[in-house]
Write a structure and sequence with these properties.
The chain is 43% helix and 16% strand. It has 357 residues and is an alpha/beta fold. The chain has two domains: 114 residues, Aspartate Aminotransferase, domain 1 (Alpha-Beta Complex); 224 residues, Type I PLP-dependent aspartate aminotransferase-like (Major domain) (Aspartate Aminotransferase, domain 2), CATH 3.40.640.10. The protein binds pyridoxal-5'-phosphate.
Length: 357
């Protein structure tokens, strides 16, 4: 007998390249979560949450940090804390906190967003100056500048540290506050060797995610001055983010923070290998040199991106359509280098079937 039952019934494992949010806790992380000491965090009683907040703040070179259920909440707490209704904030046109957070700045903070057009999410001090309003009663008060590093819709693009400093210097000259959406700041640091605290230094506040490439099941944090963090703690409660025995999930985040940062280099190597493999498949337009961290973007012209995504799904490879012709693939601890080679082979096969139709 060549085929035994197990072989016949085995469904092929999915290769999930949709996002680094699909990462599941490892056995060691689950063990740390099971063992976590907990208390009611709204009463300030949860030692694991406190440990996570202290280590996050230290790593980012800030006085304090606040654990939040999501990166969206961390970003929106920063905006709420830095502004008054009617203020204006400067954001890049593809910034997550503007593009992907359900209109939250308008609803939760009552602010206007003024968009700056960047190159893959990166803009300049001159862009900030061009968007400034004169100090005049006719205009909203410009209050806050937001950057995103790495830039999600920019395809995991890293902000060069010099350019961060240049934009920050311009913002300060004009009395503006600065927030960094650092959901994937870990990736920027691993890729460049620039420590997180150095990237974070020019900013008043920084948000970071534990639930992306770091592989924790839940949570983000907002770091900044102690008084600011205490101020937005009340808004966290108001937004519904006061959690009770949150040490269970914070333990996963703490484990990720301590053990999963360095391994992001593997994800970056896998993303580069994926881009190189795709570049060899003629029909795809991809730019391997653009791959700086764990994201690969490619274009497809022979059929709509969503149709291609559906075909690939039927073959066990999951990716996301992020535009009519644009597809995104993200590497994470859920995919090995063997998976990457298998994904490239599947993509090539689906494309060649397509071209025969
Ligand atoms: C994922 C992400 C967030 C937060 O997302 P949540 O799903 O709310 O945790 C914030 N900023 C960027 C750049 C992101 O990629």
């Amino acid at each position: 007998m060549v085929h035994d039952d197990a072989m016949l019934h085995k469904t092929p494992r999915l290769i999930d390249l949709r996002s680094d949010t699909v990462t599941k806790p490892t056995p060691a992380m689950r063990e740390a979560m099971a063992q976590a000491e907990v208390g009611d965090d709204v009463f300030g009683d949860d030692p694991t949450v406190k440990a996570l907040e202290a280590e996050t703040a230290a790593l980012l070179g800030k006085e304090a940090a606040l654990y939040t259920p999501s990166g969206t909440m961390a970003n929106q707490l920063a905006i709420r804390g830095h502004t008054e209704p009617g203020d204006e904030i400067l954001v890049e046109a593809n910034a997550h906190l503007y593009y992907y957070e359900s209109g939250a700045p308008a609803v939760l903070s009552g602010v206007m967003c003024r968009c700056v057009n960047g190159q893959r999410g990166i803009f300049t001090g001159a862009d900030v100056e061009a968007a400034l309003r004169p100090a005049d009663q006719h205009f909203p008060r410009t209050r806050l500048v937001c950057l995103e590093n790495t830039h999600n819709r920019g395809g995991g693009k890293i902000w060069p540290i010099k350019q961060v400093q240049e934009v920050a210097a311009t913002a300060r000259q004009h009395g503006l506050l600065l927030h960094l959406d650092g959901a994937r700041l870990w990736n920027a640091s691993v890729a460049t060797g620039v420590p997180e605290r150095e990237y974070a230094a020019p900013f008043d506040t920084v948000s970071v995610c534990f639930s992306k490439g770091l592989g924790a099941p839940v949570g983000s944090a907002l770091a900044g001055p102690r008084a600011f963090i205490e101020h937005v703690r009340r808004f966290r409660k108001m937004f519904g983010g006061g959690m009770r025995q949150a040490g269970i999930i914070a333990a996963g985040a703490l484990f990720a923070l301590r053990n999963h940062r360095a391994r992001l280099a593997d994800d970056h190597a896998n993303a580069k290998a994926l881009a190189a493999g795709l570049a060899a498949v003629r029909v795809l337009e991809t730019e391997p040199a653009d791959v700086e961290t764990n994201m690969v973007r490619f274009c497809i012209r022979s059929l709509p991106a969503q149709q291609f995504v559906d075909r690939l799904r039927a073959e066990g490879v999951l990716v996301l359509a992020v535009g009519p012709n644009t597809i995104r693939a993200v590497t994470s601890l859920m995919v090995s280098s063997e998976d990457i080679q298998a994904a490239v082979a599947t993509i090539a096969r689906v494309l060649s079937q397509e071209s025969q139709h």
